[in-house]
Design goal:
The protein is an alpha+beta fold and 239 residues long. The chain contains seven helices and nine strands. Strands 1, 2, 3, 4 and 5 form a five-stranded mixed sheet that branches. Keywords: Hydrolase. InterPro entries: Pep_tRNA_hydro_II_dom_sf (IPR023476), PTH2 (IPR002833). It holds the Pfam family PTH2.
């Protein structure tokens, strides 16, 4: 995958222009974040947990080989790589937990990721959940990221809802995963998929996008313009 931020790769899953991937049946990876009224998670914790949830799904034995989710995971990755984050609380969250999927926890955040579903075929208990209302804040500024570990750098000049940013962080984690070899993936999985999500200063952003690291360019389905560079995936093995 080319990392030139000015020239999207033909038929990239994130390129803004139509391509062969648009001709395939379209699927979406659902993620549900738990947001209770009395105790919403911090924004950065939610973003990091969502990114880890995507990695957990990609690395799960059910998603590969002859696993029960392997076929739909392949179909999803052969088309556009869509992710949609919805929110749940109380009984909504309990119903979501009853569906096949994996719950990933952060410091306080909880995100449940589900096998991909057809774009127009969401299970009713997920389809009824709201996409809006995932605006979260960090009570305190996040500490500096460990430079020896993976970091997903978010575009400092784009305003995104927490739900949109969670999906973009998941895209970044997935690009990093694709770029790693089997041994590097295994090491990341065995360590529990450590990562940080941070927003650099605007002055540093352009350097990150031209550093040769994987870059997410959004297709522009929601919130932001097509082709917007949203995340740079910085993994030690890719530097």
């Amino acid at each position: 995958m080319s990392n030139d931020p000015t020239t999207p790769v033909p038929d990239s899953p994130f390129r803004p222009e139509p391509g062969d991937r648009d001709l395939a049946p379209q699927f979406v990876l659902p993620l549900v974040v738990r947001i209770e009224r009395a105790a919403p998670p911090p924004r950065t914790d939610a973003l990091e947990t969502a990114a880890r949830a995507v990695l957990v799904m990609l690395g799960d034995e059910r998603s590969t080989g002859d696993g029960e989710w392997a076929r739909v995971m392949r179909d999803w990755q052969d088309a556009r790589i869509r992710k949609v984050v919805r929110r749940a609380r109380g009984a909504e969250w309990r119903r979501a937990e009853a569906l096949p999927g994996i719950t990933v926890t952060g410091k306080t955040a909880e995100v449940r990721v589900f096998p991909p579903v057809p774009l127009d075929g969401w299970p009713k208990d997920l389809a009824r959940l709201q996409v809006s209302g995932t605006d979260l804040d960090d009570p305190e500024p996040p500490v500096d990221a460990d430079p020896s570990g993976p970091v997903l750098w978010m575009n400092p000049d784009l305003g995104m809802s927490a739900g949109k940013a969670m999906a973009q962080a998941g895209h970044g984690a997935q690009l990093a995963w694709w770029e790693l070899d089997d041994a590097e993936r295994t090491a990341w999985r065995d360590a529990g998929y450590p990562l940080a999500v941070r927003t650099p200063a605007s002055a540093r952003w352009s350097g990150l996008t031209t550093s040769g690291l994987p870059v997410v360019r959004d297709a522009g389905f929601t919130e932001i313009a097509p082709g917007s560079c949203t995340v740079v995936a910085d993994h030690p093995a890719l530097r």
